[in-house]
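Q: Sequence in, structure out?
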Amino acid sequence: MEKHGKKYQEASKLVDRSRTYSPEEAIELAKKVSYAKFDETVELHLKMGVDPRSADQQVRGVILLPNGLGKKTRVLVFTQGEGIKLAEEAGADYVGADELIKQIEGGWLEFDISVATPDMMPKVAKLGRILGRRGLMPNPKSGTVVPPQDLARVVNEARKGRTEFRLDRTAIIHLPIGKISFDKDKLLENLAAAVEAIVKAKPSGAKGQYIRSAFLSTSMGPGFKLDITSVLAVSSLLSR
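A: Exactly. Output:
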């Protein structure tokens, strides 16, 4: 039985598995071989030279992609008191406290990012099993637990392309950098911002080569192995 369909196999024939690509080349080729009838997400996958089991080798942070992700981000805010008005004024899609917690416990998850004020965390903590496994749990380390006066900033950042990244159990970071319909330069700028943020997040316990390999792919298409030197240099695009 074929693992991939005919269109995928045809696209794969245009990928040279014996070489690595610069980010520019990979983006151009990804656009050329894209065959899906929807606007595919362009994804960056980095194999990191760290041990995900070690507390001092965790890689986690937030990126504000300069050109966004090409989709509307639905923001939920757990807050009460003055925070309700501030979150609503900032344009959050869902704002509340106990009633939102009950909805989520009942299986409702129609949002992309959740933010909470510190006074709500004792109540929100019981949603850990539900939200944690989906990467939706508010967390101080990712900047999604903030005082009421910072809600407007965080909600606005979420709207503009705020993306969280973290190391998975296999020492890989997966993150979206935009849509295949984006101009090449916009995708390059987003990739540059992502690489810069991940390099800055290098943990103290990391030894040896920090980023071991990198691949660029789309939702449905084949992957392109990237040249590590080019990937590390691409963040210089931000200063042009």
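The first helix runs from residue 6 to 12.
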